[in-house]
Amino acid sequence: MSVINRMLRDLDRREQRQTTTTAPAAAIAPHPTRWLRVLLIGAIVILAILGLRAVLHEGQESLVRDSATTESSVVAAIESMVEPAVETSAKTSAEPLAMVDEQPNQVMVPQPIPIPLPQQPSVPATAAAEMTQPEPPSTPDLAIASEPTPQQEPAPAASMKVERVELTAEQLASVNLRRAREALLRGDRDVAQELFEQALILEPLNVTIRSELAAYWYGRGLSSRALLLLEQGLEARPDEPAWQLMYAKILERVGYVEQAYSALTNIRVGTPEATELLELRAMAAQRLGLHGEAANDYRELARIAPQGRWWLAAAVAYEDAKEPVAALAAYEQARQQLDLTAEARNYINDRIAVLAPLVKEMN
Protein backbone atom coordinates (compact mmCIF):
# COMPACT_ATOMS: atom_id res chain seq x y z
CA MET A 1 0.00 0.00 0.00
CA SER A 2 2.92 2.38 0.55
CA VAL A 3 3.98 1.89 -3.07
CA ILE A 4 0.48 2.82 -4.26
CA ASN A 5 0.46 5.92 -2.09
CA ARG A 6 3.79 7.04 -3.51
CA MET A 7 2.49 6.52 -7.03
CA LEU A 8 -0.65 8.56 -6.29
CA ARG A 9 1.36 11.42 -4.74
CA ASP A 10 3.65 11.41 -7.77
CA LEU A 11 0.67 11.64 -10.12
CA ASP A 12 -0.77 14.54 -8.06
CA ARG A 13 2.48 16.50 -8.35
CA ARG A 14 2.60 15.95 -12.13
CA GLU A 15 -1.00 17.10 -12.53
CA GLN A 16 -0.34 20.25 -10.52
CA ARG A 17 2.69 21.14 -12.69
CA GLN A 18 0.76 20.46 -15.91
CA THR A 19 -2.24 22.50 -14.66
CA THR A 20 -0.09 25.53 -13.95
CA THR A 21 1.57 25.38 -17.36
CA THR A 22 -1.45 24.55 -19.48
CA ALA A 23 -4.39 25.87 -17.55
CA PRO A 24 -6.47 26.95 -20.59
CA ALA A 25 -6.16 23.56 -22.28
CA ALA A 26 -7.20 21.72 -19.14
CA ALA A 27 -10.30 23.79 -18.92
CA ILE A 28 -11.33 22.76 -22.41
CA ALA A 29 -10.82 18.96 -22.06
CA PRO A 30 -9.80 16.58 -19.29
CA HIS A 31 -6.13 15.60 -19.13
CA PRO A 32 -5.28 11.96 -20.12
CA THR A 33 -3.49 11.33 -16.83
CA ARG A 34 -6.78 11.55 -14.92
CA TRP A 35 -8.09 8.50 -16.75
CA LEU A 36 -4.80 6.73 -16.11
CA ARG A 37 -5.20 7.31 -12.40
CA VAL A 38 -8.72 5.88 -12.41
CA LEU A 39 -7.60 2.80 -14.30
CA LEU A 40 -4.66 2.29 -11.93
CA ILE A 41 -6.86 2.49 -8.85
CA GLY A 42 -9.36 0.08 -10.38
CA ALA A 43 -6.61 -2.38 -11.24
CA ILE A 44 -5.30 -2.23 -7.71
CA VAL A 45 -8.75 -2.86 -6.27
CA ILE A 46 -9.31 -5.80 -8.63
CA LEU A 47 -5.94 -7.32 -7.71
CA ALA A 48 -6.72 -6.96 -4.01
CA ILE A 49 -10.07 -8.71 -4.46
CA LEU A 50 -8.50 -11.49 -6.51
CA GLY A 51 -5.75 -11.97 -3.89
CA LEU A 52 -8.29 -12.11 -1.09
CA ARG A 53 -10.39 -14.65 -2.96
CA ALA A 54 -7.27 -16.77 -3.65
CA VAL A 55 -6.39 -16.77 0.06
CA LEU A 56 -9.95 -17.72 0.97
CA HIS A 57 -9.99 -20.44 -1.68
CA GLU A 58 -6.69 -21.85 -0.42
CA GLY A 59 -8.04 -21.87 3.13
CA GLN A 60 -11.19 -23.70 1.95
CA GLU A 61 -9.13 -26.37 0.19
CA SER A 62 -6.91 -26.90 3.26
CA LEU A 63 -10.04 -27.17 5.39
CA VAL A 64 -11.48 -29.82 3.07
CA ARG A 65 -8.21 -31.78 3.07
CA ASP A 66 -8.03 -31.68 6.85
CA SER A 67 -11.66 -32.75 7.18
CA ALA A 68 -11.21 -35.70 4.76
CA THR A 69 -8.78 -37.70 6.94
CA THR A 70 -11.15 -39.41 9.37
CA GLU A 71 -14.67 -38.96 10.68
CA SER A 72 -13.32 -37.86 14.03
CA SER A 73 -11.14 -35.13 12.45
CA VAL A 74 -14.20 -33.71 10.58
CA VAL A 75 -16.01 -33.21 13.85
CA ALA A 76 -12.96 -31.50 15.37
CA ALA A 77 -12.50 -29.26 12.30
CA ILE A 78 -16.15 -28.18 12.41
CA GLU A 79 -15.87 -27.28 16.08
CA SER A 80 -12.66 -25.35 15.47
CA MET A 81 -14.31 -23.40 12.60
CA VAL A 82 -17.36 -22.50 14.65
CA GLU A 83 -15.29 -21.13 17.54
CA PRO A 84 -13.95 -17.57 17.27
CA ALA A 85 -10.70 -17.36 15.33
CA VAL A 86 -9.95 -13.66 15.37
CA GLU A 87 -6.73 -14.07 17.34
CA THR A 88 -5.39 -16.89 15.17
CA SER A 89 -6.12 -14.97 11.94
CA ALA A 90 -4.00 -12.06 13.17
CA LYS A 91 -0.89 -14.29 13.61
CA THR A 92 -0.31 -15.15 9.92
CA SER A 93 -1.89 -14.14 6.67
CA ALA A 94 -1.44 -17.66 5.24
CA GLU A 95 -4.11 -19.18 7.53
CA PRO A 96 -7.81 -18.93 6.53
CA LEU A 97 -9.98 -16.21 8.05
CA ALA A 98 -12.43 -17.15 10.77
CA MET A 99 -15.94 -18.10 9.53
CA VAL A 100 -17.65 -16.39 12.45
CA ASP A 101 -16.77 -12.72 12.81
CA GLU A 102 -17.45 -11.81 16.39
CA GLN A 103 -15.75 -8.38 16.03
CA PRO A 104 -16.64 -6.97 12.59
CA ASN A 105 -15.24 -3.51 13.39
CA GLN A 106 -11.69 -4.87 13.45
CA VAL A 107 -11.82 -6.28 9.91
CA MET A 108 -10.53 -3.71 7.40
CA VAL A 109 -10.88 -5.86 4.27
CA PRO A 110 -13.99 -6.36 2.14
CA GLN A 111 -16.45 -8.92 3.45
CA PRO A 112 -15.44 -12.34 2.04
CA ILE A 113 -17.90 -14.65 0.42
CA PRO A 114 -19.25 -16.91 3.19
CA ILE A 115 -18.15 -20.52 2.96
CA PRO A 116 -20.77 -23.10 4.02
CA LEU A 117 -19.77 -25.51 6.74
CA PRO A 118 -18.89 -28.89 5.20
CA GLN A 119 -21.63 -31.32 6.19
CA GLN A 120 -20.57 -34.15 3.90
CA PRO A 121 -17.30 -33.11 2.30
CA SER A 122 -16.14 -34.80 -0.85
CA VAL A 123 -13.17 -36.96 0.03
CA PRO A 124 -11.03 -39.48 -1.87
CA ALA A 125 -12.27 -43.04 -2.22
CA THR A 126 -9.84 -44.45 0.30
CA ALA A 127 -10.75 -41.85 2.93
CA ALA A 128 -14.47 -42.41 2.29
CA ALA A 129 -14.00 -46.14 2.79
CA GLU A 130 -12.37 -45.52 6.13
CA MET A 131 -15.12 -43.12 7.20
CA THR A 132 -17.86 -45.67 6.45
CA GLN A 133 -16.51 -47.92 9.16
CA PRO A 134 -18.01 -46.73 12.48
CA GLU A 135 -15.62 -46.34 15.34
CA PRO A 136 -16.43 -47.55 18.82
CA PRO A 137 -18.48 -44.88 20.60
CA SER A 138 -16.68 -45.50 23.87
CA THR A 139 -13.39 -43.98 22.62
CA PRO A 140 -14.17 -40.83 20.58
CA ASP A 141 -11.18 -39.18 18.92
CA LEU A 142 -11.73 -35.43 18.45
CA ALA A 143 -8.09 -34.60 17.75
CA ILE A 144 -7.16 -33.03 14.38
CA ALA A 145 -5.00 -35.28 12.19
CA SER A 146 -2.19 -32.74 12.07
CA GLU A 147 -1.89 -32.69 15.86
CA PRO A 148 0.25 -35.38 17.56
CA THR A 149 -1.64 -38.08 19.39
CA PRO A 150 -1.02 -37.82 23.15
CA GLN A 151 0.78 -40.79 24.58
CA GLN A 152 -1.19 -42.92 26.96
CA GLU A 153 0.07 -43.15 30.47
CA PRO A 154 1.63 -46.53 31.27
CA ALA A 155 -0.58 -48.91 33.15
CA PRO A 156 0.30 -49.23 36.80
CA ALA A 157 2.40 -52.22 37.70
CA ALA A 158 0.49 -55.27 38.82
CA SER A 159 0.29 -55.33 42.55
CA MET A 160 1.32 -58.46 44.42
CA LYS A 161 -1.39 -59.86 46.60
CA VAL A 162 -0.14 -61.83 49.56
CA GLU A 163 -2.56 -64.30 51.05
CA ARG A 164 -1.99 -65.93 54.37
CA VAL A 165 -2.32 -69.70 54.16
CA GLU A 166 -2.95 -71.67 57.32
CA LEU A 167 -0.96 -74.94 57.38
CA THR A 168 -2.23 -77.99 59.16
CA ALA A 169 -0.21 -79.59 61.93
CA GLU A 170 0.81 -82.40 59.60
CA GLN A 171 1.97 -79.99 56.90
CA LEU A 172 3.91 -77.84 59.36
CA ALA A 173 5.54 -80.92 60.87
CA SER A 174 6.58 -82.05 57.40
CA VAL A 175 8.15 -78.64 56.75
CA ASN A 176 10.09 -78.78 60.03
CA LEU A 177 11.29 -82.30 59.23
CA ARG A 178 12.59 -81.21 55.85
CA ARG A 179 14.35 -78.21 57.35
CA ALA A 180 15.87 -80.40 60.07
CA ARG A 181 17.34 -82.73 57.45
CA GLU A 182 18.79 -79.78 55.59
CA ALA A 183 20.31 -78.46 58.81
CA LEU A 184 21.97 -81.84 59.44
CA LEU A 185 23.48 -81.76 55.95
CA ARG A 186 24.89 -78.30 56.72
CA GLY A 187 26.24 -79.49 60.05
CA ASP A 188 23.89 -77.34 62.17
CA ARG A 189 23.05 -80.01 64.73
CA ASP A 190 21.46 -77.67 67.25
CA VAL A 191 19.13 -76.21 64.65
CA ALA A 192 18.27 -79.71 63.43
CA GLN A 193 17.50 -80.87 66.98
CA GLU A 194 15.16 -77.95 67.60
CA LEU A 195 13.34 -78.53 64.32
CA PHE A 196 12.99 -82.26 65.01
CA GLU A 197 11.49 -81.55 68.44
CA GLN A 198 9.08 -78.96 67.04
CA ALA A 199 7.94 -81.43 64.41
CA LEU A 200 7.45 -84.16 67.04
CA ILE A 201 5.32 -81.85 69.19
CA LEU A 202 3.03 -81.29 66.20
CA GLU A 203 2.93 -84.99 65.22
CA PRO A 204 3.80 -87.12 68.28
CA LEU A 205 2.85 -90.42 66.62
CA ASN A 206 4.64 -89.73 63.36
CA VAL A 207 6.89 -92.76 62.87
CA THR A 208 9.46 -91.02 60.67
CA ILE A 209 9.90 -87.97 62.90
CA ARG A 210 10.29 -89.97 66.13
CA SER A 211 12.63 -92.48 64.50
CA GLU A 212 14.90 -89.82 62.99
CA LEU A 213 15.05 -87.89 66.25
CA ALA A 214 15.97 -91.10 68.11
CA ALA A 215 18.65 -91.82 65.53
CA TYR A 216 19.94 -88.27 66.01
CA TRP A 217 20.29 -88.78 69.78
CA TYR A 218 21.90 -92.20 69.34
CA GLY A 219 24.33 -90.78 66.78
CA ARG A 220 25.42 -88.17 69.32
CA GLY A 221 26.09 -90.93 71.87
CA LEU A 222 23.00 -90.26 73.96
CA SER A 223 21.51 -93.78 73.89
CA SER A 224 19.33 -93.21 76.96
CA ARG A 225 17.53 -90.29 75.27
CA ALA A 226 17.01 -92.31 72.13
CA LEU A 227 15.63 -95.30 74.11
CA LEU A 228 13.33 -93.06 76.15
CA LEU A 229 11.97 -91.49 72.99
CA LEU A 230 11.28 -94.92 71.46
CA GLU A 231 9.73 -96.27 74.68
CA GLN A 232 7.23 -93.39 74.69
CA GLY A 233 6.25 -94.28 71.15
CA LEU A 234 5.92 -98.00 71.89
CA GLU A 235 3.62 -97.26 74.83
CA ALA A 236 1.17 -95.78 72.31
CA ARG A 237 1.88 -98.35 69.57
CA PRO A 238 3.45 -101.54 71.02
CA ASP A 239 3.63 -103.35 67.66
CA GLU A 240 5.05 -100.53 65.54
CA PRO A 241 7.77 -102.41 63.61
CA ALA A 242 10.04 -99.41 62.91
CA TRP A 243 10.20 -98.42 66.58
CA GLN A 244 10.55 -102.07 67.70
CA LEU A 245 13.49 -102.63 65.40
CA MET A 246 15.38 -99.49 66.40
CA TYR A 247 14.66 -100.01 70.09
CA ALA A 248 15.81 -103.65 70.06
CA LYS A 249 18.94 -102.84 68.07
CA ILE A 250 20.01 -100.12 70.49
CA LEU A 251 19.35 -102.40 73.48
CA GLU A 252 21.29 -105.27 71.91
CA ARG A 253 24.25 -103.02 71.11
CA VAL A 254 24.46 -101.56 74.59
CA GLY A 255 24.25 -105.07 76.10
CA TYR A 256 20.62 -105.26 77.22
CA VAL A 257 19.81 -108.50 75.38
CA GLU A 258 16.97 -109.58 77.64
CA GLN A 259 15.19 -106.23 77.29
CA ALA A 260 15.67 -106.46 73.53
CA TYR A 261 14.05 -109.91 73.44
CA SER A 262 11.16 -108.71 75.58
CA ALA A 263 10.61 -105.72 73.32
CA LEU A 264 10.14 -108.11 70.37
CA THR A 265 7.41 -110.19 71.91
CA ASN A 266 4.78 -109.03 69.40
CA ILE A 267 5.97 -109.07 65.81
CA ARG A 268 3.62 -108.44 62.93
CA VAL A 269 4.50 -110.86 60.16
CA GLY A 270 4.05 -109.39 56.69
CA THR A 271 5.65 -106.01 57.35
CA PRO A 272 8.92 -104.98 55.64
CA GLU A 273 10.69 -105.15 59.01
CA ALA A 274 9.39 -108.63 59.90
CA THR A 275 12.40 -110.54 58.56
CA GLU A 276 14.91 -108.42 60.46
CA LEU A 277 12.81 -108.49 63.62
CA LEU A 278 12.55 -112.29 63.60
CA GLU A 279 16.28 -112.64 63.03
CA LEU A 280 17.03 -110.18 65.84
CA ARG A 281 14.68 -111.98 68.24
CA ALA A 282 16.07 -115.38 67.32
CA MET A 283 19.63 -114.25 67.96
CA ALA A 284 18.63 -112.71 71.30
CA ALA A 285 16.82 -115.91 72.30
CA GLN A 286 19.81 -118.04 71.37
CA ARG A 287 22.09 -115.82 73.46
CA LEU A 288 19.68 -116.15 76.37
CA GLY A 289 19.65 -119.97 76.02
CA LEU A 290 16.15 -120.08 74.60
CA HIS A 291 17.11 -122.41 71.75
CA GLY A 292 13.63 -123.74 71.07
CA GLU A 293 12.24 -120.24 70.62
CA ALA A 294 15.21 -119.33 68.43
CA ALA A 295 14.66 -122.44 66.28
CA ASN A 296 10.99 -121.58 65.80
CA ASP A 297 11.91 -118.07 64.64
CA TYR A 298 14.44 -119.49 62.16
CA ARG A 299 11.81 -121.87 60.77
CA GLU A 300 9.48 -118.91 60.35
CA LEU A 301 12.21 -117.05 58.53
CA ALA A 302 12.75 -120.04 56.24
CA ARG A 303 9.04 -120.06 55.48
CA ILE A 304 8.97 -116.34 54.65
CA ALA A 305 12.23 -116.37 52.67
CA PRO A 306 13.24 -119.94 51.68
CA GLN A 307 17.01 -119.91 52.09
CA GLY A 308 19.49 -122.58 53.16
CA ARG A 309 20.99 -120.48 55.94
CA TRP A 310 17.66 -120.21 57.78
CA TRP A 311 17.17 -124.00 57.68
CA LEU A 312 20.74 -124.52 58.82
CA ALA A 313 20.31 -122.07 61.72
CA ALA A 314 17.04 -123.74 62.71
CA ALA A 315 18.69 -127.20 62.65
CA VAL A 316 21.53 -126.04 64.89
CA ALA A 317 19.08 -124.41 67.31
CA TYR A 318 16.92 -127.58 67.47
CA GLU A 319 20.01 -129.68 68.09
CA ASP A 320 21.01 -127.29 70.91
CA ALA A 321 17.47 -127.64 72.30
CA LYS A 322 17.88 -131.45 72.40
CA GLU A 323 15.29 -132.04 69.71
CA PRO A 324 17.03 -134.46 67.27
CA VAL A 325 13.95 -135.24 65.21
CA ALA A 326 13.29 -131.57 64.42
CA ALA A 327 17.01 -130.96 63.90
CA LEU A 328 17.28 -133.85 61.38
CA ALA A 329 14.30 -132.57 59.44
CA ALA A 330 15.81 -129.06 59.33
CA TYR A 331 19.18 -130.40 58.13
CA GLU A 332 17.48 -132.31 55.33
CA GLN A 333 15.63 -129.13 54.25
CA ALA A 334 18.89 -127.19 54.28
CA ARG A 335 20.62 -129.81 52.11
CA GLN A 336 17.98 -129.28 49.41
CA GLN A 337 18.76 -125.56 49.12
CA LEU A 338 21.28 -124.49 46.47
CA ASP A 339 22.52 -121.26 48.05
CA LEU A 340 24.88 -122.87 50.59
CA THR A 341 28.63 -123.23 50.25
CA ALA A 342 30.43 -126.58 49.94
CA GLU A 343 31.73 -126.28 53.50
CA ALA A 344 28.19 -125.79 54.80
CA ARG A 345 27.00 -128.80 52.80
CA ASN A 346 29.75 -130.95 54.25
CA TYR A 347 28.72 -129.90 57.75
CA ILE A 348 25.08 -130.70 56.97
CA ASN A 349 25.98 -134.17 55.66
CA ASP A 350 28.05 -134.89 58.78
CA ARG A 351 25.22 -133.91 61.11
CA ILE A 352 22.68 -135.95 59.17
CA ALA A 353 24.96 -138.97 59.41
CA VAL A 354 25.07 -138.55 63.19
CA LEU A 355 21.38 -137.81 63.80
CA ALA A 356 19.83 -140.29 61.41
CA PRO A 357 20.77 -143.47 63.44
CA LEU A 358 19.79 -141.71 66.67
CA VAL A 359 16.36 -140.79 65.38
CA LYS A 360 15.97 -144.33 63.98
CA GLU A 361 16.68 -145.79 67.40
CA MET A 362 14.18 -143.39 69.02
CA ASN A 363 11.48 -144.62 66.67
List the helices and strands and how they pair.
Layout: H1 2-21, H2 23-28, H3 32-67, H4 71-82, H5 86-91, H6 125-132, H7 169-186, H8 189-202, H9 207-219, H10 223-236, H11 241-253, H12 257-263, H13 274-287, H14 291-304, H15 308-320, H16 324-336, H17 342-362
Helix pairs in contact: 1-3, 7-8, 8-9, 9-10, 9-11, 10-11, 11-12, 11-13, 12-13, 13-14, 14-15, 15-16, 16-17
Give a description of the structure.
There is one protein chain. 67% of the residues lie in helices and 0% in strands. The chain has a domain at 289-362: Serine Threonine Protein Phosphatase 5, Tetratricopeptide repeat. The protein has helices spanning 2-21, 23-28, 32-67, 71-82, 86-91, 125-132, 169-186, 189-202, 207-219, 223-236, 241-253, 257-263, 274-287, 291-304, 308-320, 324-336, 342-362. It comes from Pseudidiomarina indica. Residues 118-157 are annotated as: Disordered. This is MSHA biogenesis protein MshN.
Uncertain segments: 21-30, 73-78, 81-150
Query: Main sheet?
Result: none
Question: Can you count the helices?
Answer: 17
Order of helices and strands: HHHHHHHHHHHHHHHHH
CA radius of gyration is 60 Å
CATH architecture of one domain: Alpha Horseshoe
Please give the oligomerization state of what you see: single chain
Structural class: mainly alpha
Give the CATH topology of one domain.
Answer: Serine Threonine Protein Phosphatase 5, Tetratricopeptide repeat
Keywords: Membrane, Transmembrane, Transmembrane helix
Protein name: MSHA biogenesis protein MshN
InterPro entries: TPR-like_helical_dom_sf (IPR011990)
Pfam family, one: TPR_19
